[in-house]
Amino acid sequence: MKPPPFDYHGPVTLDEALGVLAETGPDGKVLAGGQSLIPLLNMRLAAPAHLVDINRLPGLDTIEAGPGGVRVGALARHAAVERSAAAAAVQPLLGQALRLVAHPVIRNRGTVVGSLVHADPSAEMPAVLALLGGSVRLARRGGEREVPAEEFFTGPMESALLPGEMAVSAFFPALPGRSGTAFRELARRHGDYAMAGVAAAVTLDDDFRIAAARVACVSVGPVPVVVDVTAACGPRPAASVDWDAVAAAVLDRIEPEADIHATAEYRRHLTGVLAVRALRDAAREASEDPEASDASDASEASEASEGEEGA
Amino acid sequence: MNHAITLTVNGVVREVTVPGRRLLSDCLRHDLGLTGTHVGCEHGVCGACTVLLDGEPVRSCLTFAVTVDGHEITTVEGLASGGGLSPVQRAFSECHGLQCGFCTPGFLCTVTAFLRENPAPDHEEVVEAISGNLCRCTGYQNIVKAVHRAAEIQAEEAG
Ligand SMILES: Cc1cc2nc3c(=O)[nH]c(=O)nc-3n(C[C@H](O)[C@H](O)[C@H](O)COP(=O)(O)OP(=O)(O)OC[C@H]3O[C@@H](n4cnc5c(N)ncnc54)[C@H](O)[C@@H]3O)c2cc1C
Ligand code: FES
Ligand code: FES
Questions:
Q1: ∠ CA(A215), CA(A218), CA(A224), 5° rounding?
Q2: ipTM, 2 dp
Q3: Which of A62, A89, A201, B11 is deepest in the core (most CB within 10 A)?
Q4: In sequence order, what DSSP letters do the residues of A88-124 get, joined into one string?
């Protein structure tokens, strides 16, 4: 089908865009990559009165990688972030997750920030932001606020974005030295939203024992479900962890629902299996972390530079 | 409200006036008469509408024409040059990579861009590259063959 009519706005400066959003309030919607919004319009599931197309705004297609993390601007496309060697060096989970988002052609248009605001509980990037404890920067006429991930995702397809606001960037923190990450998921077809998926981050201590371990699960709740499994994993080397107990700790915290793609029970089963695979992959990556020999220096360096990440 | 926009389509500057909600796929087909770009699902799943936007493959059904005002579009009509078929088109023809041909314009655009980035792909890479294009007829085997053959033809012609 075709989209319902709307008033189209094509601002060329951020101020102009924020002005239109302020004036249109709840009737205005931002158009970024359009890879989620236009299907909704074509299917007539959304009918905003005003669309504010941000594709002409200058300076928003940025990917700034510093020792503290990666800040991604609102017009950085999935494909650009996926290919960024600088971003991968600081936070490899970005590329690991983006390879699982839709198809390459969709990733040429879709934006990372748009995916966060869209807040689909089956999407990869909200889980990544939640796992890493990142944040989203929201601008409105005359002000800005930085919203941490745990407050940003408020429900299925619901975020903390208020009428009149626009997301200008998102920040994905780096992990300390001797850390590793992984994203494992299962979808019916390549490029589909996953029936279940798990992002994991593991940090090892100087003796290669698991010092911290977290997972974020998709498609098993209204928002990405973050579970800290440090207690169930550590402090032991990955080879001697009781992985069944770790899976049980994750399953305790999720309440998947059934849909056309999978029963609730199947999703639970998948989440347990994928959590263990992702954690073991992350632990392996952590043991190969090139910064491992210098772990304490690296984590101090990244803390010290946290304030400068946006520069 | 209508918007006057300028698109460079297959190297030709085209001026057209469209409402904000005009999809790029419909602008190409209805306003510009370029019906080579096909429309299957209109929600990004089938890939039939794939065109090149400034050289990069995108879904024309998930792009508003007005958003790409001032940009360059290549459709299936623009892949051939100098009267002959492009290497990708020749490979699809040689390998019988199509039956009804409905999906073909999307495959041709996707594969043309893919081989530019990865001129010597392995099997896995080919399958991933075309994973966003659905074909109801061929069963994909000959399409996969055609992608490898296109890579070969391009290498021969370059070498
Ligand atoms: C066939 C298909 C398969 C897909 N598969 C997956 C998948 O497996 N995993 C996945 O994660 N995604 C998937 N997607 C969605 C894709 O990742 C989208 O690109 C992404 O969800 C939204 O990004 P966008 O830039 O296209 O946003 P848009 O579609 O432009 O916008 C989406 C929503 O976010 C709002 N918005 C966007 N940017 C901003 C901003 N800067 N400020 C305020 N509001 C904003 C819009 O108003 C709208 O409500 C798929 C899409 C398609 C078509
Ligand atoms: S018509 Fe555009 S992807 Fe199917
Ligand atoms: S040849 Fe008929 S859909 Fe592909």
A1: 70
A2: 0.95
A3: A201
A4: HHH-THHHHHHTTSS-HHHHTT-BHHHHHHHT-TT-H
Q: What is the CATH number of domain B87-158?
A: 1.10.150.120
Nearest by CB to B63, from A6, A8, A34: name it: A34
> In this complex, is the C-beta atom of A31 within 8 Å of any C-beta atom belonging to chain B?
yes
Which residue, judged by its Cα, is nearest atom 4 of ligand 3? B135
CB proximity A12 to B under 8 Å: no
Mean pLDDT by 10 residues, chain B (159 residues): 96 98 98 98 97 98 98 97 91 97 98 97 96 96 98 92
Helices then strands, each counted (H, E), chain B: 5, 5
- Residue A38 touches chain B, beta carbons under 8 Å: yes
C-alpha B13 – ligand 3 centre gap (Å) = 31
Residue type present at position B63: T
Question: What Cα–Cα distance (Å) separates residue B41 from each residue in A101, B32, B111?
Answer: 19, 21, 20
Q: Chain B contacts of A4, Cβ < 8 Å?
A: 21
Residues 6+ apart with CB under 8 A from B46: B40, B103, B106, B133, B134
- The architecture of the domain spanning A7-53 is 2-Layer Sandwich (3.30)
A235 preceded by cis ω (within 30°)?
yes
**Which letter does DSSP use for residue B118 in this model?**
-
User: What's the full length of chain B, in residues?
Assistant: 159
Q: What is the DSSP letter of B134?
A: -
Identify the burial level of B94 via C-beta atoms within 10 angstroms of its C-beta, where 0-12 means exposed, 13-18 middle and 19 or more buried: middle
State which CATH number among 3.10.20.30, 1.10.3720.10, 2.30.30.100, 3.40.50.720 fits the domain covering B2-78. Answer: 3.10.20.30
Ligand 3 closest atom vs CA B100? 2
What pTM was estimated for this model as a whole?
A: 0.94
How many other C-beta atoms are found inside a 10 Å radius of the C-beta of residue A190? Answer: 13
